[in-house]
Amino acid sequence: MPLRIVVGLGWGDEGKGKVVDHLAPGSGAVARFSGGANAGHTVKTDGGSVVLHQVPSGMLRPGIAGFIGAGCVLDPVAMLAEMEALSDAGHAVRGRLRVSGSAHLVHPVYRLVEAEEELRRGSRAIGTTGRGIGPAYVRKFGRTGIRLEDAADRSALESMSDALLEEAAGMPGSGPDLANQAAEFVDAAFELSGLASDVGSAIRGMLADGVCVIAEGAQGTLLDPDHGTYPFVTSGSCTAASAFQSLGLGPGPALVTGVMKAYSTRVGAGPFPTELDDPTGGELRRKGREYGATTGRPRRCGWLDAVLMRYSVALNGCSEIALTLLDVLGGFPEIRVCTSYEGLPGGRPVFGRGLSACRPVYETLPGFPEDISGERSWDALPPPARRYVEFVERFCGAPVRLVSTGPHRDDVIRRDV
Ligand code: GDP
Ligand code: IMO
Ligand code: MG
Predict the structure, then answer these.
(1) Which of 74, 123, 138, 215 has the least C-beta neighbours within 10 A?
(2) Among residues 41, 104, 107, 227, which one is catalytic?
(3) For residue 14, which atom of ligand 1 is closest to its CA?
(4) Is 13 a catalytic residue?
(5) Phi, psi of 158 (to 5 degrees)
(6) Coil/strand/helix, residue 380
(7) Phi, psi (deg, nearest 5) at residue 267
(8) Is 0.85 topped by the overall pTM?
(9) CATH 3.40.50.720: does it fit domain 260-414?
(10) For residues 15 and 49, what is the distance between their CA atoms, to the nearest angstrom?
(11) 157-210 pLDDT tens trace
(12) Which overall architecture, per CATH, does domain 104-193 show?
């Protein structure tokens, strides 16, 4: 299937970057279809770890083209800095990357607006990444945003930026520093406008020629504003269906790879039924190095919520699952999985506000003492580890065809199921 969509099934940070990078050889392009600089996608190569925020993950592979879709919101200053850092590390992307002219730009004023909104929410704060993502989507849908294609006209861009500075006058944080950031924004956006392109027609052409394209999601299904744990969500759509919309493709055949962590994590606020605020949660965080790739915040950790995962698999129409960080479960005497809830209004799962009323009911599976880090053979896995994988695929309703056993790009078991 020429189009493969890689999507997160949880609250983000499932290992999408690693999976996309692993799958990239053999494809012609990787296209990011959601979010912006709120994402942090880690790829570990022999040369060390790289965290990609806005540049598509597969671009660390030489010769792979990159696209950024209309559904993304781009911070031009951060984007240029990321491209320069990649180039310094031997991964020049400039000549291979094209960005939809319809993608919206994140102005520095948006970060101020976001900070003020978070303060106003008080104890109901979302715990955003502070990257101006929410206000960028608000402006987009309010029809007052700035698109990359607008940035090609420098004087028009300057007027738009000045109007935003005027709106921000008097807000905490506005002043000379903000004016400097706005000037940097104008320079960077103008420079980036040179990459603006008709991404949809380029991808449609590649697919028609039988060239494989990987659509790379950001965040995760449970952070999707329509289908996630609203209001504790991000502001851009992040399900597989949104890949078509963002990239300018009609709905058509695609192989959907849902990336699922072997346990659950969440950064920021919001309901998390299986969260473990105890030494076991601490052990998951320590072994999985669960600290945000974008903000460095400690991630909240808990057992796998298979009820939510089954929901995400169905919602995305997953063809397969990539189960990541299985190695982190090594050494736990037993592994628990949430397979139902009690205390639900009406007795059925509620994925929005009602989720906080859910109490998880667990099934307990045997653990495995072995360290399976870096294991690349299915047959070499201890039987309880294999049983766990088989349990997950049976319960969630899609085959686990990739098992990740370490952060390195090659720490993967492929299964022919
Ligand atoms: P993404 O946002 O979905 O791309 O995921 P992140 O990069 O934010 O977080 C995933 C973290 O897990 C990163 O630190 C990866 O290097 C790491 N990682 C990915 N797969 C594995 C794995 O199978 N085992 C271990 N131990 N770490 C992994
Ligand atoms: P990747 O692509 C994990 C979370 C934030 C916050 C909520 C809203 O690396 O998986 P935002 O800044 O988007 O308005 O924040 O969404 N969030 C993420 N959590 N991984 C991400 O991206 C995230 N992007 C946003 O922590 O709870
Ligand atoms: Mg991440």
Answers:
(1) 123
(2) 41
(3) 3
(4) yes
(5) -60, -40
(6) coil
(7) -110, 140
(8) yes
(9) no
(10) 13
(11) 999 999 999 999 999 888 899 999 999 999 999 999 999 999 999 999 999 999
(12) Orthogonal Bundle (1.10)
